[in-house]
Amino acid sequence: MSRLSTRELTLAYEERTVVHELDLAIPDGKVTVIVGPNACGKSTTLRALGRLLRPKGGAVLLDGEELAKVPTKRIAQKIGLLPQTPVAPEAITVADLVARGRQPHQAWWKQWSEEDERAVVDAMARTDVSALSHRSVDELSGGQRQRVWIAMALAQETDLLLLDEPTTYLDIAHQVEVLDLVRRLNRARGRTVVVVLHDLNQAARYADHLVAMKSGRVVAEGPPSEVVTADLVREVFGLDSVVVPDPVTGSPLVVPGAPWSADETEEEGAEGVEGAEESGVAGVVNPRP
């Protein structure tokens, strides 16, 4: 079953096509992670899933209906989207920013309610930012700020949550913190989550369903244990590697091939000297003026 899917979806920026006739079904109640090299179309696809980008061809479907035909407010009540590097209004507090997640549920005759208050308090508690409620978002660390943005998305109380590279610019401890939070939210509430990540090992660790893209097309998709292989890493990322079980989770762990070595340079240099000697170039010194 899939509430959110694409049908022959083609996406473009002006005349440059980025995604080509994509058929994709997001599994309900699972964490789906989209991976691939830079400029492969993964973030563009996520933007289209949240209706931030109009298709050039095909369609995005929400509950069987073309997303382009669904009223914006109804989409905001069903899909929460956290784009890359969102920018908060200057000097806004944590509580006020999280409260903005309730806007899709309000109208001129229905302003702030007890239900809104409950949703905001619950979202801040689940993301562990309650103690920061009166602080300015500008004052927070990267990890704290990212948790606040996720809290705002949670306050929308949507069944579908889209996160575009939520670990960007975070150190490894904060990356794990944010991804653990995403996993807990999925398990506790059964939310369907779609995440774009750069790190293949993090994707394999946290995904139920992995989608590997290259040049605007899906190369492989399925459980990480079936998708992440040395052949796939070579095909998608152009990297020679060994795939072994993660010693903590058992998920696939990609170990890149042998790193560059100073010995290689010395060998290459020696070969260069030998070649120059054979050609008669070695030993020539530029005359002084």
Task: List the keywords.
alpha/beta; 12 strands; 24% strand; disordered C terminus
Radius of gyration: 24 Å
What is the total tally of β strands?
A: 12
Q: Supply the number of helical segments.
A: 10
Globular, elongated, flat, extended or rod-shaped: what is the shape? globular
Mean pLDDT: 87
Instruction: Report the structural category.
Output: alpha/beta
Strand order of the largest sheet: 6-7-8-3-9-10
Percent range for β-strand residues: 15-25%
Main beta-sheet strand count, sense and barrel state? 6 strands, mixed
Query: What is the chain-wise order of helices and strands?
Result: EEEHEEHEHHHEHEHEEHHEEH
- Cα(first) to Cα(last) distance is 80 Å
Describe this structure in words.
Helix 4 runs antiparallel to helix 5 and helix 5 packs parallel to helix 6 (172-189). The chain has ten helices and twelve strands. With 289 residues, it is α/β, with parallel strands linked by helices.
Please give a quick description of this structure.
By secondary structure, this protein is an alpha/beta fold.
Please outline the helices and strands:
Blueprint: E1 4-13, E2 16-26, E3 31-35, H1 42-49, E4 57-62, E5 65-66, H2 72-78, E6 79-82, H3 94-99, H4 114-126, H5 142-155, E7 160-164, H6 172-189, E8 192-196, H7 200-206, E9 209-214, E10 217-222, H8 224-227, H9 230-237, E11 241-245, E12 252-256, H10 262-279
Helix pairs in contact: 4-5, 5-6
